[in-house]
């Protein structure tokens, strides 16, 4: 399944994009001559204000749809890797590439740190997990794949990398609870179609290639039906070496 696109939702944001310029490049716009006394044209310049355009799409609590992932509270290295992935064309979303394509790496790192340190409650922690249309059998299949994998088919358990609590593992593996089902399905579609990639070796592309469409549907149903714990934080390190090597996670290279 190709990753969904909502071009009309993105147009409005182009007007904001310039406010993101790295601080050194910011300069007040030239104004026509005016008799008024000089007024402070540059608003107080904090990182939180400069990333306001990001928050317009990535609402702090997250939305429950396929398109705009929550970024608050995801591990810093993961967020940073994604900014590089958009910049370098390994992930495709034109507005993202436009927004981060010209920013220097230290500034991308700062933006990643900023969002990683935000922990607003998830929207679903008030409403409960989304109602998921799936049979009990399908949910069970999803649970088994996530927690145990399927050794006979070479599918590692998701928890081997994403952590026992599925809350992610520092520095660069994201959590899997709290993600909308449609978003998970769309990302697997993107890996299978090679429009989402990570730094090589791309372990998620490898995992995705081993899952059938029915496996993905079962896994996304089970994950989306899990309650999210707002107090959960990414684990400090994997409990054991990762079952596959992941280019974005160089310190925990793991087995081959
Ligand atoms: C016009 C809407 C829009 C704006 C503005 C926007 N993004 Fe995004 N961003 C998206 C969409 C849509 C995706 C998911 C694309 C996909 O499915 O691959 C995304 C993905 C991401 C991801 C990957 C998330 C994940 O969980 O894998 C990160 C990180 C991110 N954006 C950061 C930012 C930052 C930082 C800014 C501000 C500099 C920003 N975005 C501005 C729409 C936007
Ligand atoms: C060998 C380690 C490994 C295994 C096993 C693994 N993952 Fe991942 N996963 C990763 C890494 C690393 C990333 C970050 C990839 C990147 O930087 O784009 C990731 C990213 C993801 C994302 C993207 C989240 C987002 O916010 O966009 C999803 C969804 C995901 N994995 C689902 C799964 C599921 C479901 C399974 C089990 C079927 C699984 N993963 C098994 C390492 C793994």
From TrEMBL:
<dbReference type="InterPro" id="IPR036909">
    <property type="entry name" value="Cyt_c-like_dom_sf"/>
</dbReference>
<feature type="binding site" description="covalent">
    <location>
        <position position="158"/>
    </location>
    <ligand>
        <name>heme c 2</name>
    </ligand>
</feature>
<dbReference type="InterPro" id="IPR050597">
    <property type="entry name" value="Cytochrome_c_Oxidase_Subunit"/>
</dbReference>
<keyword id="KW-0732">Signal</keyword>
<feature type="binding site" description="axial binding residue">
    <location>
        <position position="162"/>
    </location>
    <ligand>
        <name>heme c 2</name>
    </ligand>
</feature>
<feature type="binding site" description="axial binding residue">
    <location>
        <position position="58"/>
    </location>
    <ligand>
        <name>heme c 1</name>
    </ligand>
</feature>
<keyword id="KW-0479">Metal-binding</keyword>
<keyword id="KW-0408">Iron</keyword>
<feature type="binding site" description="covalent">
    <location>
        <position position="57"/>
    </location>
    <ligand>
        <name>heme c 1</name>
    </ligand>
</feature>
<dbReference type="GO" id="GO:0042597">
    <property type="term" value="C:periplasmic space"/>
</dbReference>
<dbReference type="GO" id="GO:0005506">
    <property type="term" value="F:iron ion binding"/>
</dbReference>
<keyword id="KW-0349">Heme</keyword>
<dbReference type="InterPro" id="IPR024167">
    <property type="entry name" value="Cytochrome_c4-like"/>
</dbReference>
<feature type="binding site" description="axial binding residue">
    <location>
        <position position="96"/>
    </location>
    <ligand>
        <name>heme c 1</name>
    </ligand>
</feature>
<dbReference type="InterPro" id="IPR009056">
    <property type="entry name" value="Cyt_c-like_dom"/>
</dbReference>
<dbReference type="GO" id="GO:0020037">
    <property type="term" value="F:heme binding"/>
</dbReference>
<feature type="signal peptide">
    <location>
        <begin position="1"/>
        <end position="26"/>
    </location>
</feature>
<feature type="binding site" description="covalent">
    <location>
        <position position="54"/>
    </location>
    <ligand>
        <name>heme c 1</name>
    </ligand>
</feature>
<feature type="domain" description="Cytochrome c">
    <location>
        <begin position="137"/>
        <end position="227"/>
    </location>
</feature>
<feature type="binding site" description="covalent">
    <location>
        <position position="161"/>
    </location>
    <ligand>
        <name>heme c 2</name>
    </ligand>
</feature>
<feature type="binding site" description="axial binding residue">
    <location>
        <position position="204"/>
    </location>
    <ligand>
        <name>heme c 2</name>
    </ligand>
</feature>
<dbReference type="GO" id="GO:0009055">
    <property type="term" value="F:electron transfer activity"/>
</dbReference>
<protein>
    <submittedName>
        <fullName>C-type cytochrome</fullName>
    </submittedName>
</protein>
């Amino acid at each position: 399944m190709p990753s969904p696109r909502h071009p009309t939702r993105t147009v409005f944001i182009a007007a904001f994009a310039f406010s993101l310029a790295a601080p050194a490049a910011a300069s007040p716009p030239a104004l026509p001559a005016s008799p008024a006394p000089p007024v402070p044209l540059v608003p107080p310049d904090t990182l939180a204000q400069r990333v306001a355009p990001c928050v317009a799409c990535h609402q702090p609590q997250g939305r429950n749809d396929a398109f705009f992932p929550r970024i608050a509270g995801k591990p810093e290295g993961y967020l940073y890797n994604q900014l590089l992935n958009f910049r370098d064309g390994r992930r495709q979303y034109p507005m993202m590439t436009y927004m981060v394509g010209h920013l220097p790496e230290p500034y991308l790192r700062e933006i990643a740190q900023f969002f990683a340190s935000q922990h607003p409650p998830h929207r679903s922690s008030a409403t409960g997990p989304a109602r998921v249309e799936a049979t009990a059998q399908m949910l069970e299949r999803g649970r088994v794949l996530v927690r145990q994998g399927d050794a006979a088919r070479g599918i590692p358990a998701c928890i081997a990398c994403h952590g026992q609590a599925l809350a992610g593992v520092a520095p660069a593996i994201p959590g899997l609870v709290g993600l909308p089902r449609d978003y998970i399905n769309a990302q697997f579609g993107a890996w299978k179609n090679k429009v989402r990639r990570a730094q090589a070796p791309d372990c998620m592309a490898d995992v995705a290639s081993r899952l059938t469409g029915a496996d993905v549907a079962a896994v996304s149903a089970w994950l989306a039906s899990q309650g999210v714990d707002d107090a959960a934080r990414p684990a400090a390190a994997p409990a054991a070496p990762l079952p596959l090597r992941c280019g974005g996670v160089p310190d925990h290279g793991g087995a081959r």
